[in-house]
Amino acid sequence: MYKEIFKNTTFQFFSRIITTGIGFILTILIARHFGANSFGEFVKITSFVTLFYLFVDFGINAIFIKGNKNFSSLFYLRLILAVVIFVAANSIAFILPYDVRSGVGFSDFARFGIFVFSFSLFSQAIIFSTSAIFQKKLNYKLFMVSQVLGGVFNLFLIALLIFFAKPLGFIILSFTLSSILTAIISLILATRSPSLRSGVSGRGEKISTFDITFGKKLFISSIPLGLMLIFNLIYFRVDILLLSVLKPNADIGIYSIAYKFFDFFIAIPLFLSNSLYPKMLDSLNNKIGFSKIVKNYFLIYLVFSILIVIPVWFLSPMFSLISAEFANAGLPFRILILSLPMFFLTSFIQWVLIAKGVIKFLMYAYLLSALLNIGLNIIFIPQFSYIASAAVTPVSEAFVLVLLLFKLRHNRILSEKQNGN
Question: What average pLDDT does the segment 269-295 reach?
Answer without folding.
Answer: 73
